């Protein structure tokens, strides 16, 4: 796909080979972690058929990307403030729109993201899982593809299929991998090393391990409370791990900016 984001913000497309590996939790908490560092961060929920980023943030916006695609408004009109100063552009659940985007709608969405990019340092896009055309196009248009990998055989094989489809069909050659729901950093690193060895045996791509997120009951509790773990339990193992991932994938914000953000958002 030829459409790309050329605005100021760096766009990360968060994706996975299958559902159930914590992709949206990673996207949401990564966005908040970046905002806590002082970066102006926009989270865009493009998993529109089953969009739930807003739920994980305790937000229920009245307008979604469905309104943008229907030309009822512009992207700026649907962005609402979230924890630690992030902006959220919510997707729309229940209508299957993510599986029916036309080429013109994809172009409109990407142009809208490019227009808003000047107001942000980072744009985190939560895409649909798997190798659907819309998710693939969004990942290909991003500055960086961020693959969420979990330690189960089906997740491993589906992530391999996703990387292969993006490399062969979309020309993506660089991937960032976050190992999620692992027992330890060592287990996460071992999972990544195995994944990399299999991938690079057959595909000419580069993989970078951004870090591991442990399986953590505080994440489940945050979901139950419809809140973000980074906000609700900042000292949890998963929150600290996500902070490290954010620091690895994005440059740190200037100290003065961080101080301003901390003053504005208190505990954030």
UniProtKB/TrEMBL annotation:
This is MinD/ParA family protein. InterPro entries: AAA_dom (IPR025669), FlhG (IPR033875), MinD_FleN (IPR025501), P-loop_NTPase (IPR027417), ParA/MinD_ATPase (IPR050625). It comes from Allosphingosinicella ginsenosidimutans. One of its GO terms (molecular function) is ATP binding. One of its GO terms (cellular component) is cytosol. Keywords: ATP-binding, Nucleotide-binding. One of its GO terms (biological process) is negative regulation of cell division. Residues 10-165 form the AAA domain.
